[in-house]
Amino acid sequence: MLYLIFYGFALTVIIGLLASWIDRKVTARLQYRVGPPILQPLTDIIKLLGKDTLLPEGASKMTFFMAPIIGFSSVVLASTLLWMNSVNHSHTFIGDLIVAIYLLTIPSLSIVMGGFASANPFASIGASREIKLVLGYELPFIMAVFVPVIKSGFSIKLGQILSFQLVNGAIALSYSGALALIAAVLCMQAKLGLVPFDVAEAETEISGGAIIEYSGSALAVYKLMKNMLFFVLPFFLIILFMGGFRFDGFNFLYSVLKYIGLVVIATVIRNTNPRVRIDQAVRFFWGPVTAIAVIAVVLALKGF
Amino acid sequence: MSLKLKALLKSPWVFHLSTGSCNNCDIELLDCLTPRFDIERFGMVLAGSIKHADVLLVTGSCTRQSVIRMKRLYEQVPKPCLVVAIGECALSRGMFIHSYNCPVPLDKIIPVDIYIPGCPPKPEAIIAGVVKLIEKVKKEKRCEK
Amino acid sequence: MMTREKILKDLQEKFKSDIIDVFDKSPKRVYIGIRPESLRKVAEYVVGILNARFNIATGLDARRHIEILYHFTLEDINLLVSFRVKLDRTSPKADSLTDILEGANWIEREIHEMLGVDFRGHPDLRKLLLSDDWPEGVCPLKADYKEWDKKAIRDRGI
After folding, report:
1. CB contact under 8 A, C151 and B104
2. What letter does residue B145 receive in the DSSP assignment?
3. B35 CA: distance to closest CA in chain A (Å)
4. Where in the sequence is the domain holding A168, given as residue range(s)?
5. Which ipTM score applies to this complex?
6. Domains of chain C, CATH where assigned
7. Are A and C neighbours with ≥3 CB pairs closer than 8 A?
8. What global pTM score does this model have?
C-alpha cells in the first residue's frame, strides 16, 4: 500500500511535473526565449481543476468520463510495479515484464476511447490516427524489449533483469543493446505523443485532436496522465537497458543523470523535427525501426 | 484571493477568435508568441480548441455571419473566462461603423473585460493590456472581499 | 507575335459596329466601351482567338447608369483590356458569360446581389457573400440603399 501511494502516485507526479518543466524550459532556450517558471505545470493542472467540465450533447457520458480515469490509474499501477522492482529486486513475479508492457499500452487506448466517445468529427480523426500510430510502434517496441530478455538468460522477471545488470554491466553497453535502445527511444517518442509523432493531438491542424471536447477536471486528469507518462516511460527504459535506479551513493547521481539525459534526448528530437503524417509515421516504424530491432534481436541471439 | 483565481491568472490559455478582420491585428497578435515578445514566460499558451481556453482574444468588426457563430462559441467556453477586445474594429467597428454588414459592436453581444485600442496595436500594447487586465481582476476580487 | 497596335486595330476592324469608344489610358491599359448586346461575341473572340485570360469583372453605380467592366489580360504583351458595358439603371440586364468562361460564375453572383444586375442564362443566381437573413432585392452598393435593419447601432455611444 505504501508503494502505491507514495512511490506510485506522489513521487511520480512530482518527478513527472519536473520533467515536463525541463522539457518546456529547454524548448524555450533552444528558441532563444525565456521559458515558464518552475511551478508552471502544477499551476496548469490546478487551474484546470477550477474550470467547468462540459459534456457535449450526444456523447456517451460513462465512456467520456471513465476514459481519463482508466488511463490515469493504469499509469499509477505501472509506476508502482516498476518502483517496487527497483527498490527491492526480490519483489518480482513471473511475467511482470509483460504486465508492465500491457499497462503502458492502456494510456494511448484511453485517449482513443475518449476521442471516440466525444461526438465530434475532429476527435474521431485524432482517435483513428492514434490507433494507427499504436499499431505502428508496438511492433518494434516489443522486439526491442526482447533483447534484455534474451541477454539476461530468457527470463521475464524484471527483478532478474535488474540483478543480471548489477553483475554484468548495463545491457546498453553491448552492440545489440545499443541498437535496441535506439529503437526503443524512437518508440518512446511516439508513445509520449511528442513531435515528430504527435499526429493524434496535432494542435493547429485538427484543433486538439482526440481531446478537443475535454475541459476542466477531465482535461486535468489527462494532462496529469501525460506528465506522469513522461516519467514512467524513460524509467522503464532505464530499468531494461541501463541498469535501473540505484540508491547507493555515487550511483544515485548517475541514475538521475541517466534519466535527465533521456528527457533531454526526447526534447531535442522534439525541437529539431517537423510533424510527420500518419502514413509516413507508420511506414517509418514498420521500416527502418523494425529493421534495427530485428538486427538487435539477431545479434543478441548470437551472443553479442 | 482564492486559489482558483490565482491559478487562472498565472496560467491563462489564450484562444484567438477573428470575427471578420483584415488580419492585421491577427498578425500582431501572433507576433506576441514569437521569441521577441515571448508570452510563454507568463504561462500563456495558444490553445487549440475553444474548450481549453481561459482568455478569448477577439479581433475584427462583427459581420452578420460571424456574430451567429461567435455567440455559439462563447456559450461553449468553460467559465470563468475573460474576453479581450483587440483593435479598433473590435472596440466600436472603427472605420466600418456605417457599413451595411456590421450592425452591432462587440460589447453589445458578449461581455468584454478589457479593450486594447490601436489599428493594429503593437505587441507591446497587447502585453501591457493583458497586464492591466490581471491587475484589474486582482483588484476586483479584493474589493469584493 | 501580335503587338499592341495590331491587336487594337484588329479589334476595331472586327467589331466596328459594336465598339462605342476606345480610351487608350497608358501602355498597359485600354478601356473599350461596347454595346451590351455584343458582349458575348466579343468575349468569345478575345478568349478563343486572341488567347486572353479573364481576370475579374467590376461593377459600379455611376449616377445615371450602371456599368460593368470585364478585364482581360494579354500576358505576352503586358496589356490589360477592359470592356465597359453601360446598363440601364432602373432594371439592369446583361448576358451571362458563365458557359464560355467558368470563372465568371461567382463574380456575376456577387454583382447580382450587390447591384441588382440580372444575368440572363446564369445557371445558379443566388446570394454569394451576404448573410442568410438579408432581405431579397435590397442591394447594398447601389446609391439609393437605405438602412433596413431596425436593431443596428450606428452611434459611438459617446
Report:
1. yes
2. -
3. 5
4. 2-302
5. 0.86
6. 4-120 (3.30.460.80)
7. no
8. 0.85
